[in-house]
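Progress note, sequence design subtask.
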């Protein structure tokens, strides 16, 4: 049991170190995947399009760097900026969303990449604290399992 807990502890420790060391690569990959999701955005409600819509609605953002990122997509030429970027769903007409100058007044202008990464970084202290707490419990479990194992081996020949 102590060996299993030690193995899990080491795996979590290695994952944390790798995540910390490669955080810049993770950001770069996220940005490129977000750009790809915008490029492939469509109305057929696939997972990537739903994820983009959810991010834009939840964080009140639009595009990767800003709302004008949508102008370089195929979706923009057909329907304009998606409705998930709208500040108010009642005030967003499709003709306004096709015109970048009018859309600027009706959609969120901030990009999602900065908001997502800043939100993740602000929550990182909570994640680190919870992870540290779990690691402490794992270490206590490892120590107690070793003590129990030692107690069992020392008292192997006693009458019970």
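Output:
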């Amino acid at each position: 049991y102590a060996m299993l807990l030690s193995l899990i502890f080491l795996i979590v420790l290695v994952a944390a170190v790798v995540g910390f060391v490669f955080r810049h690569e993770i950001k770069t990959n996220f940005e490129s995947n977000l750009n790809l999701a915008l490029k492939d955005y469509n109305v057929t409600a696939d997972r990537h399009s739903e994820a983009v819509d959810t991010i834009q609605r939840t964080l009140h953002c639009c595009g990767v760097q800003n709302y004008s990122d949508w102008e370089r997509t195929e979706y923009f030429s057909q329907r304009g900026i998606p409705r998930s970027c709208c500040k108010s769903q009642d005030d967003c007409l499709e003709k306004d969303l096709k015109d970048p100058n009018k859309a600027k007044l009706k959609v969120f202008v901030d990009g999602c990449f900065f908001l997502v990464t800043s939100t993740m970084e602000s929550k990182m202290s909570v994640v680190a604290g919870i992870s540290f707490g779990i690691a402490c419990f794992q270490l206590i479990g490892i120590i107690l399992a070793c003590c129990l194992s030692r107690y069992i081996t020392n008292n192997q020949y006693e009458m019970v």
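The helical segments are 2-21, 23-39, 47-59, 74-79, 94-98, 100-106, 112-154. Work on this subtask will continue into the next period as scheduled.
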